[in-house]
């Protein structure tokens, strides 16, 4: 009886709640794209440089160049999503089409380019760029739906934070699988610069990503319908030039862009394979004994933080959770930085080793584990917060434009995260290394300073940017409840025949909302 009453109250208030299986399956879309993301961010430079023989700086810089290409594709694809309302839904077509494009482009990029004769190197360069660009289009098609699709999946403030947990689980299935298998297969198949490594990893990525995409489509199937889109029954065609005005007016999205970019930059550099090869292999001298165990340590420490972030988000809002645990990560990484400053090659007391435990190792595991757990739990938190910004835009202007909201956020997110590979490539080149270090690369002069900067200082600066951006972010948990209530009463009025303009004029603040539409 109480469940029925709760359901009726939620429906009256315009509450759109997802079923448990929907909350679990839809984030698999992010897992599907992250399979390709980790391969591209961490290994495509190895392929271009080691297998195709392309210049090192070209290989690492192309990651950033292609993210700049996203500056064009992101808003265009976001606009297409907002204008789409097919029998197959608004989001599902782009999820499926995007995955198919990535399958085709990956085959061409990692296998087709090798068919080109070495004496036609110019053609290898040209095809590498072309096939990489095709991959970017497919990736943007699918990844844009992760952010924008949440708006129709649920608007319950208690459910949205749970997306972070299931999104991480999905990422671990996809991205984590690649991260775990890469060092094992790299040793057995000739290293990250070998063709054999990619002969195994690319088909595996294609299969895993396709399965995760299918699960995500099932997850959003029932919610990918017009009745879950925005306030009005009819979706207006928003012109491209109006998106500039939307971004300019939506200060919350601007701040979230900065915060999200900071989180992603910290994550992409601190987990970059080249950086970890220099840290665990060249400096500490035991890549095989440290990389996977330290990754496991990070994941183990992450578990309680995921539970804490959800609890904090449900009680105080997602902003409070992001700020609290980003601050903790920043404090812990000060400890990591100090330990790396004390590192002394050849002195066991000042080296990380899991084979012979010392005080240095214990402190490193604690500082790194807590810091990694805190920031890994918040790394994807800005994604569900995009849905809050989209609902705020509906409240502010009446426009339901989740596609452009998601891709505007994604644009900055991708541009900044792509800097990771370029920064790493430039740093390595500056100390005179011509080939990206792998697990077998010996220590050379300059690596210590590079690791200090890339593993600690750059992420810490990124976290400071996140904290600064969140200082003026107003979409707290309490504020989102008010926004959802206003949107709910407007949507009800429009469904009863009132125009959207009249509804927006009549109900402007939470105080205007009738009691039955207020969310407790």
Automatic annotation (TrEMBL):
Keywords of this entry: Membrane, Transmembrane, Transmembrane helix
A single BP term in Gene Ontology: carbohydrate transport
UniProt-recorded Gene Ontology molecular function terms: symporter activity
GO CC terms in record: plasma membrane
Pfam families: MFS_2
Transmembrane segments: 35-59, 94-116, 122-141, 162-182, 202-221, 256-283, 289-310, 322-345, 357-377, 415-436, 448-470
Iron-sulfur among keywords: no
Source taxon at top rank: Bacteria
PANTHER family named in the record: MAJOR FACILITATOR SUPERFAMILY (MFS) PROFILE DOMAIN-CONTAINING PROTEIN, MAJOR FACILITATOR SUPERFAMILY DOMAIN-CONTAINING PROTEIN
Protein's UniProt name: Sugar transporter
């Amino acid at each position: 009886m109480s469940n029925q009453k709760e359901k009726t109250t939620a429906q009256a208030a315009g509450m759109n709640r997802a079923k448990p299986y929907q909350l679990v399956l839809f984030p698999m879309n992010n897992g599907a794209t992250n399979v390709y993301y980790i391969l591209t961010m961490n290994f495509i430079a190895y392929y271009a440089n080691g297998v195709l023989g392309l210049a090192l700086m070209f290989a690492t810089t192309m990651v950033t160049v292609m993210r700049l290409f996203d500056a064009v594709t992101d808003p265009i694809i976001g606009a297409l999503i907002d204008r789409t309302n097919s029998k197959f839904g608004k989001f599902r077509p782009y999820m499926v089409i995007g995955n198919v494009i990535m399958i085709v482009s990956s085959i061409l990029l990692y296998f087709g380019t090798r068919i080109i004769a070495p004496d036609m190197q110019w053609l290898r360069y040209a095809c590498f760029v072309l096939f990489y660009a095709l991959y970017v289009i497919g990736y943007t098609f699918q990844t844009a739906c992760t952010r924008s699709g949440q708006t129709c999946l649920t608007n319950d403030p208690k459910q949205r934070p749970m997306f972070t947990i299931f999104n991480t689980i999905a990422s671990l299935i996809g991205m984590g699988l690649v991260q775990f298998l890469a060092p094992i297969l790299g040793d057995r198949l000739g290293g990250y610069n070998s063709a054999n490594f990619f002969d195994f990893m690319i088909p595996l990525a294609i299969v895993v990503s396709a399965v995760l995409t299918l699960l995500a489509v099932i997850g959003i199937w029932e919610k990918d319908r017009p009745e879950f889109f925005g306030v009005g029954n009819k979706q207006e065609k928003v012109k491209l030039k109006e998106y500039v005005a939307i971004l300019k007016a939506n200060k919350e999205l601007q701040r979230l862009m900065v915060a999200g970019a900071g989180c992603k930059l910290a994550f992409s550099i601190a987990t970059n394979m080249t950086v970890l090869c220099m840290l665990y292999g060249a400096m500490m001298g035991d890549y095989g004994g440290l990389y996977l165990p330290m990754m496991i340590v990070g994941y183990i420490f992450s578990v309680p933080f995921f539970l804490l972030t959800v609890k904090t988000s449900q009680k105080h809002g997602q902003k409070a959770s992001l700020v609290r645990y980003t601050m903790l990560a920043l404090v812990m990484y000060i400890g990591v930085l100090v330990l790396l400053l004390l590192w002394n090659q050849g002195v066991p007391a000042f080296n990380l080793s899991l084979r012979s435990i010392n005080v240095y190792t214990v402190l490193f595991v604690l500082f790194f584990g807590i810091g990694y757990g805190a920031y890994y739990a918040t790394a994807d938190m800005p994604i569900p917060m995009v849905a809050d910004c989209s609902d705020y835009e509906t409240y502010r202007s009446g426009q339901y434009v989740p596609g452009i909201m998601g891709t505007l956020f994604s644009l900055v997110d991708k541009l900044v995260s792509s800097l990771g590979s370029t920064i790493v490539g430039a740093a390595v080149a500056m100390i005179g290394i011509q080939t990206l270090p792998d697990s077998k690369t010996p220590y050379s002069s300059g690596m210590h300073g590079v690791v200090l900067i890339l593993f600690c200082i750059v992420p810490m600066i990124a976290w400071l940017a996140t904290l600064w951006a969140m200082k003026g972010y107003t979409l707290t948990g309490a504020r989102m409840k008010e926004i959802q209530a206003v949107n709910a009463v407007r949507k009800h009025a429009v469904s009863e025949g009132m125009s959207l303009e009249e509804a927006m004029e009549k109900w402007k603040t939470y105080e205007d909302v009738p009691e039955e539409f207020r969310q407790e």
